[in-house]
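Methods — Computational structure assignment.
A single polypeptide chain was analysed. Its primary sequence is given first, followed by the predicted tertiary structure written as structure tokens.
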Amino acid sequence: MKKKDISRRNFLKNSTLALTGSALLPAILTSKSVFAAERKKTKMFCYQCEQTMGGKGCTSIGVCGKTPEVAALQDLLIYTLKGISIAAVAGRKVNISDVETNRFTCLAMFATLTNVEFDPYRFEDLLFKSILLRDKMIKRVKAAGGTIESQSESLTLKLKPTVDGMAKQGKRYGLMSDPEVDPDIRSLQHMLLFGIKGMAAYTDHAAEHDQEDEGNYEYVHRGLAALEDKSLDMNALLGLVLECGEKNLRAMELLSLGNTGAYGNPVPTKVPLGAKKGKAILVSGHDFIDLEAVLKATQGKGIMVYTHGEMLPAHGYPKLKENFPHFYGHYGTAWQNQKKEFNQFPGSILMTSNCIQKPKQSYKKNIFTTGTVGMPGVAHVNKNNLGPLVDRALELPGYTEDKPDMEILVGFGHNAVLGVADKIVAGVKDGSIGHFFLVGGCDGVKKSRNYYTEFVEKTPDNSLVLTLACGKFKFFKQQLGDINGIPRLLDVGQCNDAHSAVQIAVALTKAFDTDVNGLPLSFIISWYEQKAVAVLLSLLHLGINDIYLGPTLPAFVTPNVLNVLVKNYNLTPIGTPEGDLKKILG
């Protein structure tokens, strides 16, 4: 297949934003009078996740459980981070780059992701620190002879002294606060903002391992500062959006280096879905460092440690399995089922990243948060003091008997898959492997997500299915068999392990002397929150065509912006499993 020029420069040069409408998405509000009327009715506005109300936006309370108060505090925090970023951009022009400012910007952005931070008083701390770091950076820039040309109010904003006051203040800086912005410009701004949020989360996780790249921090600040630059046109914003995908690839690579450096390269590992008799702790989320801290804190205490949700791939890391024999199995499924599953778990529970829901009273005393995660009324701990979590586990009954169940396989990162690359290449050449499907992304509550279960069930017997992130829970128990000893279902890992999937694809392109679009490889992606947005931008940056995206398209993408993505990448909404497989396989 002829290689396609996929550079960002050529994409922008060849792209024009069509002025025609599209049937794929409803247009967002364009009439200023309608916009103003709708704004008066709303207590908040948020549409950063796939499950936003009616596919348009949450206006009274978030589907995630976010209150209007917290939504306003998040909007205010983003606005203060724009001020930090404008100052940081000026700082780099006079050779000033501050480690504390860099790390804080990404941590604070992480707090605004879906299902992360719900506690208004923790936002109060973040806001005060944001202003402190902004003013400190402005002083350093001026002392070094630099200048800050922007007139943005984010550089001079003073916070109200109370949380209530800040929440009222934040209503001025919401996603739809400026009715004068062209809808397509706003769409690209929000795509950029949500992509940076996802990238910042990965960057924050990687920084815990001391894996950092100044270029990524520079981009985060430049991208956030650009959101206050009203002179930027469509192409300039498109360039920043695609660059976000490029930088997110680097962020995922750094996180992979951090995880593998600390715990070894993942290896194929059987994980029991049952339970062992004894006390129990459940660890959910993405942060392996927090999991390791729990494992260390529970050594010799008769407590078995289980994973939940996105923590499942941890079982494939040798140093976690070998060093901690009480690290046993996996409990439950994806984040959206936690209220039922946590209610039945007989131990304590630790939430380490963006997966928490408002807990039921029946298990509220059993659940703890750490790191960036917060929930009013839920005890917060840190990896250096997990005593309350351990004590609660010892108080609770745990499992009174063994509960055997099936085992599943994890640990098929790129090192493991490339270890059998010769078998894969031979399988493609002799026809025993006809196609590869990457079916990955987020899970969620919509019944339409059963599409992914049915899709995997209907994939032909001569195909391999790679999966990653919590979307795997739609089919992770499927017994698909193997091809020449290679399991047909290969769990690549967490959402950030999209980096591993890319490495596998790159290796195949070299083996078959083609580009990614020339491989018998299809991407079937489910999205929910901002990390998934960042991963999608990374795939677009790589020039990958014919991505099937669902269960619905993002509410923040206008028809004109969607037309560009369809024209340049053939980005396609999912249809039916049968119909999409027919199109893919011809």
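Note: The mean pLDDT is 93.
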